Each structure stands twice: as structure tokens, then as C-alpha cells.
């Protein structure tokens, strides 16, 4: 029989809530913890190179730099705003202007290095600043720091590795850490350079052998013939003359010797060029997720392929923008926590991407509008980058075209059956009156009466309406279609029980 424990009045009423708030499956519980006071970077490439991330700094290649800069430019070339529509707009505007003045664009470019290295670290220098809002504590500088200076512990906290080999935990609100898709297993982030290491290594090896290949098969061979009686010294002197002939295209050949140029026949395929092309494509995929925008193969590409590849790049741009916004928003939260700790609504950064990258956001806003959400002009300016002087806010028209009720008639659709029926009847009567004025069938009747055969009717039928008032007929037909549309809509509303006779 189990012994019942008495309730402690100091304990929470529901112990289950307290237990759910605790972490159970932690690294210290589930894994064997070594004697290290930090978590080693699990990147396999770095493990094989002594764990020093400097190996990625030495990866220099023209194609690698091109695809890297293309991905960076999709973010650095865009404008950004601070959206403070839900809080104190005066404070949000001040934060936006202040961040512009500390060259945030360069900081964003440095933060994007987290894509290649996995993470980027920036130290914030705080100081008191006199502003229109009073004396505030603000970041006066945001300086990038080398990744190899830092480690992460088992709780993903940043540690500074000092020159004496020790590591110190960093104070709060001092360092901004931008990470590319970090996980519990890898708080250092996903390093794209890791996927480019071997392609670049093979490319450099391929280029070396490619140069040897070009030298071997790109130039003719010079073959010298000497008499059998030539001594070894005479043969060596003749060889030097041949080397001069290949290098300088001139040589003095003894009369007793002769020279022939042998053209070298290369293989049909150059395997070294294929290695270099493969390496460039692999690096393009690692950085851009596609290859069509950086390489043009012999097979070409269709418009559909180009669209798919561009969509892949658009997804990466959205992901990169979210990563940068997350870091800058962390800085904004710290500014508010230090200066306005009681402020509940905190603004956030928004990178304005081009229209083709905003389709998902636009579709979301349209659906929200249909649900009754109303956006203001400031939202349109901040999110879509359209200046207020180019548009004006109007009430969205309800669904239903000509049956849509204005704001003054909202909720009164059931009382409009008489108006609907009256409108339909008016269109119908007007159509009948106008059709009587235009006898559309008169030319056909006249043709049939005077024709001698069906072939004559067929041949002259097209010309029957050459003199008819086609503009008038078109106008009346438009009225007819409108009347039919109204009648159809009225019938549907009646069957649905929305309107009554």
C-alpha cells in the first residue's frame, strides 16, 4: 500500500504544469558529455582540417564568389523599413532613422556571411546618445568579429575563446549571433562552404591537369633527326635547339640534321573540363539551389525550367531575408528593453523584396481583406514599397459584381427582391422595344424568297448584313446578355432562399 503524501501549501496547485515547463530530453541527459567546456563544431569538413574555420576563408574562386555575391545581392540591394504600425509610431520612426545612420546595409552584408560559414557574430558598442526623445542608450557601432574566436556550449550559449585557451560566456545584449538554420545538434548553423569544399578541391586539381592537357595536345611536337654518327654531346645540343624552336619558334639547325613537326591528336572528350564544369554546377546548386541562372548548357533550357529555377532562388531569398530580419529584430528588442521596458508593442524590421517574391504575402493580404481586415496606407508603403502619393485607400468592393450592396445596404439583401425583379423586368422590356426597331431577320427572308437554289442562299448569306447597323445590334445584344445575367442571378438567389418574390 503506497503512502500518501500530504499537500504542501507552498507548492503550485497543478504540479503537472510545473513538470511540463521543464526540459527533460537535454544533451547532458541523452548524450555522453566529454571533458570539454564547449560543444565542438560538428561540421565534418572542419573536423578533418583541425576544426579551424579559417579553411573556409581560403576558398577563393571566381565562380564561387559570383554565385555567393548573387545570393547576397538579392538581400543587400533591397530597401528595408521598420514597421511600427501597432505601437508608438514616433519611437519606431526614430529607431528606423537611427539604424539608417549607423550604416546598417554594411552590417547586413556581414550578417549574410552566416550562409557560408554557418554563423556570424557582431559585437554591439552601446553608449548614451542625446536625442529628441531624451537621453537614450543606443548602439553606436555594430562590429563584425571572426567566427574562430567563438564557440557554443551545450546550451547553445556563445563563448569567447581567449588567447590563453580559456572560454568565457558573453554578457547579455552584447553580441548578435546570426545563424543559418541552426539545430540542437548543430548550434553553429549550416555552412554552405562545407558543400563547396570538395567541388572546389576537385576543380583546382582538374584545372592543373587541364593545363597539362592543353600543353600536351595544344602544341605540335618537334622531332629532330640526327645522323647515326652524332655524338651524345651533339644530340644534347640538338635537343636544346628543338626546345628553343618550340618556345621561340626559331632555331639554328645543323645541316646534318632535320626537323619535323608532329601534330598531336587529342581525345574526343576532355575529362578535365568536365570535372571543372561539374564543380561549378555543384557550387551553384549549393549557393543558389539551381544552375540555370549561372550556366548555359548545350541543351539550353525552357521557360518552364527558368521559372522553376527562379522560384528556387526566390525561396532562398525569402529565407535569407527572414534570417536577417530575425537578427535586427533582436537588436530592436534590446533597444526597447533598455530604454522603454514598459512598451508592449515593439516594431520590427521588414526587408522589402521585389514583387515576384511577394506573391505569397500578397495572396495572404487579399484573403485577410476578404475576411474583414483593413490595412492602412502605412502598411502598403512599408510592406510593398509604394509611396503614399501614388495611391489612395478605398473601401473594398464586396463580391458579387452588379448585385454587390454598398455599405449603406449591408445586411439588407433579403429586402431587395422587389428591386431585383423590377430591374430584370425593365431590361427585358427595353430589349423587346429595341428589337422591334431592328428587324434582324428581314434580309434573310428577302434572300430566301428571291434565291433560285440553296447554293445561292449559302453564298449570299454572309453579305446580308453588310448594310445592317452592327453597332446598334451589338448594343442590343449586350443589353440582352445583361438581362439574362440578371435573371440568372435572381433565380439562383431565389432558390437559395436569400431573396423572395
Characteristics of this structure?
48% helix; 501 residues; 18 helices; mainly alpha; 3-stranded antiparallel β-sheet; disordered N terminus
Instruction: Tell me the fraction of residues in β-strands, as a range.
Output: 5-15%
Summed over residues and divided by their number, the pLDDT gives a mean of 74
What's the order of the H and E elements? HHHHHEHHHEEEEEEHEHEHHEHHHHHH
Distance separating the two termini: 78 Å
How many strands, which pairing sense, and closed or not: the largest β-sheet?
3 strands, antiparallel
Global Rg? 39 Å
Write the layout of secondary structure elements.
Layout: H1 15-20, H2 27-30, H3 44-47, H4 54-57, H5 62-76, E1 80-83, H6 89-101, H7 104-111, H8 114-117, E2 119-131, E3 134-145, E4 150-152, E5 158-161, E6 167-169, E7 175-179, H9 192-218, E8 221-225, H10 232-248, E9 258-262, H11 271-288, H12 303-339, E10 348-351, H13 359-370, H14 377-384, H15 417-437, H16 442-450, H17 454-460, H18 470-495
Helix pairs in contact: 5-11, 9-11, 15-18
Can you give a write-up of this model?
The protein has helices at residues 15-20, 27-30, 44-47, 54-57, 62-76, 89-101, 104-111, 114-117, 192-218, 232-248, 271-288, 303-339, 359-370, 377-384, 417-437, 442-450, 454-460, 470-495; strands at 80-83, 119-131, 134-145, 150-152, 158-161, 167-169, 175-179, 221-225, 258-262, 348-351. It has 501 residues and is mostly helical. Among the domains are: 220-263, no CATH class; 407-495, no CATH class. A hairpin with a 2-residue loop joins strand 2 and strand 3. Helix 9 packs antiparallel against helix 11 and helix 15 packs antiparallel against helix 18. The chain starts with 14 loop residues before the first helix and ends in a 6-residue tail after the last helix. Residues 1-5, 303-309 and 400-415 have low confidence and may be disordered.
Amino acid at each position: 500500500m503506497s503512502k500518501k503524501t500530504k499537500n504542501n501549501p507552498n507548492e503550485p496547485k497543478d504540479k503537472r504544469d510545473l513538470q511540463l515547463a521543464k526540459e527533460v530530453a537535454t544533451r547532458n541527459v541523452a548524450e555522453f558529455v566529454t571533458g570539454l567546456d564547449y560543444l565542438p563544431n560538428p561540421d565534418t569538413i572542419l573536423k578533418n582540417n583541425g576544426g579551424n574555420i579559417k579553411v573556409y576563408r581560403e576558398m577563393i574562386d571566381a565562380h564561387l564568389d559570383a554565385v555567393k555575391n548573387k545570393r547576397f545581392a538579392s538581400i543587400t540591394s533591397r530597401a528595408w523599413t521598420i514597421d511600427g504600425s501597432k505601437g508608438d509610431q514616433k519611437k519606431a520612426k526614430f529607431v528606423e532613422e537611427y539604424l539608417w545612420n549607423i550604416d546598417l546595409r554594411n552590417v547586413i552584408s556581414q550578417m549574410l556571411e552566416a550562409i557560408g560559414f554557418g554563423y556570424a557574430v557582431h559585437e554591439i558598442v552601446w553608449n548614451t546618445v542625446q536625442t529628441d526623445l531624451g537621453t537614450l542608450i543606443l548602439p553606436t557601432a555594430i562590429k563584425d568579429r571572426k567566427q574562430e574566436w567563438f564557440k557554443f556550449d551545450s546550451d547553445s550559449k556563445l563563448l569567447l575563446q581567449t588567447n590563453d585557451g580559456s572560454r568565457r560566456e558573453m554578457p547579455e545584449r552584447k553580441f548578435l549571433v546570426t545563424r543559418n538554420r541552426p539545430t540542437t545538434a548543430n548550434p553553429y548553423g549550416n555552412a554552405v562552404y562545407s558543400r563547396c569544399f570538395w567541388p572546389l578541391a576537385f576543380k583546382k586539381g582538374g584545372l592543373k591537369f587541364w593545363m597539362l592537357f592543353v600543353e600536351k595536345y595544344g602544341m605540335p611536337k618537334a622531332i629532330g633527326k640526327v645522323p647515326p654518327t652524332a655524338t651524345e654531346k651533339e644530340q644534347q645540343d640538338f635537343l636544346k635547339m628543338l626546345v628553343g624552336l618550340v618556345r621561340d619558334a626559331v632555331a639554328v639547325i645543323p645541316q646534318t640534321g632535320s626537323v619535323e613537326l608532329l601534330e598531336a591528336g587529342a581525345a574526343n572528350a576532355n575529362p578535365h573540363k568536365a570535372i571543372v564544369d561539374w564543380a561549378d554546377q555543384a557550387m551553384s546548386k549549393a549557393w543558389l539551389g539551381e544552375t540555370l541562372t549561372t550556366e548555359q548548357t548545350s541543351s539550353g533550357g525552357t521557360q518552364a525550367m527558368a521559372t522553376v529555377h527562379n522560384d528556387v532562388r526566390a525561396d532562398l531569398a525569402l529565407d535569407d531575408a527572414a534570417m536577417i530580419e530575425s537578427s535586427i529584430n533582436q537588436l530592436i528588442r534590446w533597444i526597447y528593453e533598455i530604454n522603454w521596458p514598459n512598451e508592449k508593442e515593439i516594431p520590427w524590421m521588414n526587408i522589402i523584396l521585389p514583387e515576384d517574391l511577394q506573391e505569397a504575402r500578397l495572396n495572404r493580404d487579399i484573403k485577410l481583406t476578404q475576411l474583414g481586415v483593413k490595412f492602412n496606407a502605412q502598411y502598403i508603403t512599408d510592406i510593398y514599397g509604394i509611396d503614399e502619393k501614388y495611391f489612395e485607400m478605398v473601401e473594398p468592393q464586396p463580391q458579387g459584381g452588379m448585385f454587390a450592396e454598398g455599405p449603406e445596404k449591408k445586411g439588407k439583401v433579403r429586402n431587395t427582391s422587389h428591386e431585383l425583379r423590377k430591374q430584370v423586368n425593365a431590361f427585358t422590356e427595353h430589349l423587346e422595344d429595341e428589337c422591334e426597331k431592328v428587324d434582324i431577320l428581314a434580309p434573310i427572308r428577302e434572300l430566301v424568297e428571291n434565291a433560285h437554289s440553296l447554293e445561292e442562299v449559302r453564298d449570299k448569306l454572309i453579305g446580308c448584313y453588310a448594310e445592317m447597323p452592327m453597332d446598334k445590334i451589338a448594343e442590343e445584344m449586350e443589353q440582352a446578355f445583361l438581362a439574362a445575367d440578371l435573371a440568372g442571378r435572381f433565380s439562383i438567389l431565389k432558390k437559395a432562399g436569400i431573396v423572395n418574390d
